[in-house]
Amino acid sequence: MITKFGSLFAGHVDLDNLGWEGTPANDRRYSNDHLATVFDKTIAIATLMDRVGYDTFWMAEHHFQHEGYECIPNIMQLSVHMAHLTDNIKFGCGFNIAPMWHPLRMAEDYATADILTGGRMIFGVGRGYHTREVEVFGNPMLDADANRDLFEEQVDVIMKAFKHESFSHHGKNYDIPPDVPYRGYDLKEITLVPRPVNPVETWQPIVSASERGLNFMAKHGIKGIIGGGAAVGGAALTVLEAWQKAQADHGIETELGGNVILGLSYHIAETVEKAIEEARPFYEENMKMFAPLGFVRGLTDDQLDALGDPKRAPHVGLPTLEQAVEAGSWLVGTPESIKEKLEDIGERLPGLVEVNMGNPVGTPQSVLLEQLEAFGTEVMPHFKGRVPAEAPADD
Q1: Which of 75, 138, 212, 352 has the lowest CB atom count within 10 Å?
Q2: Could you tell me the end-to-end alpha-carbon distance of the chain, in angstroms, rounded to an integer?
Q3: pLDDT tens, residue by residue, 250-268
């Protein structure tokens, strides 16, 4: 039963000349002063969501994006600051990209944020998808197998650091601790100081939904986020069924949709038609950014090439917002119609508790705030505070 709501903000600054006929993604370049506005924008979103009663504000870690699409380099540092400006909302790492960190530095930073925010942090890890980011930090992205091997070892290290008073790890990429003398003894184990003092809830994006990836998550008790951010399209039933099975194989029994947050894009207006027209440039800008990175399946090389050409893009049969609405990955229309669609999703996925309602990369701050307030005041109260019906007592 859906009772909790969050939203993912990838960190875009306000952009100009949006849509397929607007400025090509690779041609965007903004001043440092404008890129720095991402922090005021993020704070404005967080304080509104806290006031209205959302549960979690998710942010994404990214680097080097002079184009202005994803401009938050350190989620945990920003969250500590915002915890002083808000009262209740939790801050989700969606996601800390492990291959751009040393795993012990990530664990230390999270533990610090956990303590300083009074337990309002939610841990999240990802493998990354930008070669410019991961490879610049000296780790593999082009070699997908090497990237996954590194990521899995990093998560193993982080989980040991969180859970054990002292530990060691000796693997392919890390030798922790090295066998060195220290103040009169030989070093054999280390302790993360401090460790988190609140229970650590860990999330990871489900993108490829490979058997290896799902089993790794289930082994560590990691929960999954599907859709939202870069992932265009609804959550396929087969993916949710595969996730349910992977959890069951590791002794975690759930109803369909259990231990998942489902991401959905939305736009509220007086009519479906008006909502589509208002949201269309944001939908198109989002596709310009993410389709060349492989997040829109089924596009031809010609369609991908046309996304960089404002004259060709509208004429090569790219997927439309109307099709996204039809597929169910976008909810548009009146608050009442969006309630009905969410109720339908909840009925089909009885284990689903939380959804992320998002606005795509490109949506201006004024529209983001307007939409979050409308959803939070006109849709969310219908679901908040509900409790599942009790199972009938045995005779």
Answers
A1: 138
A2: 26
A3: 999 999 999 999 999 999 9
Q: What is the pLDDT of residues 367-378, one digit of tens each?
A: 999 999 999 999
How far, in Å, are 71, 211, 318 from residue 312 at the CA level?
29, 39, 10
Q: Give the pLDDT of residue 295.
A: 87
Q: What is the SS3 string spanning the chain?
A: CCCEEEEEECCCCCCCCCCCCCCCHHHCCCCHHHHCHHHHHHHHHHHHHHHHCCCEEEECCCCCCCCCCCCCCCHHHHHHHHHCCCCCCEEEECCEEHHHCCHHHHHHHHHHHHHHCCCCEEEEEECCCCHHHHCCCCCCCCCHHHHHHHHHHHHHHHHHHHHCCCECEECCCCEECCCCEECCEECCCECCCCCCCCCCCEEEECCCCCHHHHHHHHHHCCEEEECECCECCCCCHHHHHHHHHHHHHCCCCCCCCCCEEEEEEEEECCCHHHHHHHHHHHHHHHHHHHHHHCCCCCCCHHHHHHCCCCCCHHHCCCCCHHHHHHHCCEEEECHHHHHHHHHHHHHHCCCCCEEEEECCCCCCHHHHHHHHHHHHHHCHHHCCCCCCCCCCCCC
The tokens for 31 are 């001043």
For 309-358, the pLDDT digits (tens) are 999 999 999 999 999 999 888 999 999 999 999 999 999 999 999 999 99
Question: pTM value?
Answer: 0.94
How many CB atoms are located within 10 Å of the residue 182 CB?
10
Chain position carrying tokens 């008790």? 221
Are the C-beta atoms of residues 28 and 308 closer than 8 Å to each other?
no
On the question of pLDDT at 230 being above 60, the answer is: no
CB atoms near residue 317 (< 10 Å): 11
